[in-house]
Amino acid sequence: MLASAFSLLAQEAPTIEELKQQLDLDSLIMTETFYYWTVVVMWLIHVGFMAYEAGVARRKNIMSTAMKNILTIAVVTPTFYYFGWYIYGCFEEGWPKSGHASPDAVPGFCGLTAPWSSGLGPNMESNLTGHLSLVFFLAFLLFSWTTGSIMSGALIERVRLSAYLLLTVVLGSVVWIMDAAWGWSGGGWLTTRFGFHDSIASLVVHGVAGAFTLGVLLNLGPRIGKYDVLGRARSFRPHNTHMTLMGLMLIFTGFYGFYAACLVIQSTITPGWLNIYLSPTTLGAIAFVITFGFAGGFTGGWVASRGDPFWTLSGGLAGVISVSAGADVYHPSLAYLLSITGGMFAVWVGTWIERTLRIDDAVGAVAVHGFCGFYGVFLVGIFAGGYPTGVNNVPVSFGGQMIGILTFIPLGFLPGYAASWVLKKLNLLRVPAEVELEGLDMAEFQQDFFPEFERVPETVVLPTGEEVEAAPILLEALAQTNGHRTAVGVSEERRTP
Amino acid sequence: MIDSFPFDEWSDDIGAFWTFWSEDKTGTYIMTVLGIIVMIAAFVYWTWLEDRKLAAQAALLRGAGGLPAPGGVPPGPGPSQPPLAGPSTDPGD
Q1: Which of A167, A259, B74, B84 is most buried by its number of CB atoms within 10 A?
Q2: Which residues pair with A461 in a beta bridge?
Q3: What are the sequence ranges of the domains in chain B?
Q4: Domain harbouring A367, CATH code
């Protein structure tokens, strides 16, 4: 023991240079470890989306609903690797200025985002270009899955699985990452020129996914029997509301990883935590805002829906999304108050979309993610005006935020509408009407997933609130135009047995 | 066979070709192209297979002489159509 102590004392003290090298290495390891664990936590978002949507689905559509969430990972991962990440790295100015050249604001980053680059392989030459690029990629990949999952729930019970997968590739590996390059990066043109500020992705993830979903829903049409001949909305009972609420709670847990992954930390290069635009913030600040966002959102959702469990929890999600854009700068009380309004708006807008626009969004995704995503960026223009954003310290302004909103509405909506329109014309968007009535699980998997439990007659809730047996209503709706100004998307041949 | 394989002579070259070991990126480009081809093939197969499943089930339901009861269970213990998912159970395959 004593000999060991003398041995240590006898060693030469490390030089300043050696200490600096050790500190740099420790910092890199800490950063890589941090992002790795954000990815682990963010998996819970996808567990949650799966449970949430499967719970909302009727018993006959459970597995087809869950498989959409699982296979989102199978299709977005390779497409995001092959071209999505490259879009983020190289399209910050709108279009690469000179082919594969790097943008000026982030020199070298563009070149590290191609699938054959050293930045996307196990390159051991440099921790910075190797390990950190990989964990950054993974964090963004999880954001991409999230955009697909946002759309997924809205389309359930009538969309083809393959159609959803193709649409989610367009959304998750092209559309959202393009908007992230423009407005959610240090060198994005919206940030460097207009001070666009959406620090934790209210709009760039949620809003754009909601706008894309709206475009798809217009072509997809409502579920058979959703509307009566007068255009009044009926309701389908979720097969397991408790599973849905548990799924939402898992999503909320994963959001803490999502929020953390939106920050930048590399202690020997940056002065502590930075937001995605490389402006200072703290992990504590955003954790505070997310927590108050949930509290306010639950409150707003509960009040506006008069205690409906589904909308109370969806209100929590809406509340957080409404304050995410300014989560790096908001006072907790401001976040609380704004998130209450977000939770309330989600209920009102969701009801308006369902009853007035007659768009069948099965989980309220357009209202919760779409509307509140844009609302969050709008609020930053009012409550955080003048806050310097990005490496150029361009102040946040209401005009700059509006330019972002007006840019991203068409960027989200038009590709969703166009891609789903093409699939509809190819008759690849929607399942046949007979299959929809019987349930997608029988056609997709040839089995009922509760084999030990007797099936009770399916019910539907009328606009008057009365719950009745669904069969006669759905069969009659099939013979009509589904009570919607847009036909359900099945041919005359398929309507007639 | 395993003992006689010239691992030492081949391993460096193979490793350099297929991994990020060296500056030679030929293997990386080949794997990238192969990955993209397989990915597209998987999309096409998914779409084709699902279309086949849906068309088969819709035809079965139409052929049954009426529209299906919403959420109805097919008669009998087995599936209502030959399973298109899962491994083949036909010994002739």
Answers
A1: A167
A2: A235, A467
A3: 7-59
A4: 1.10.3430.10
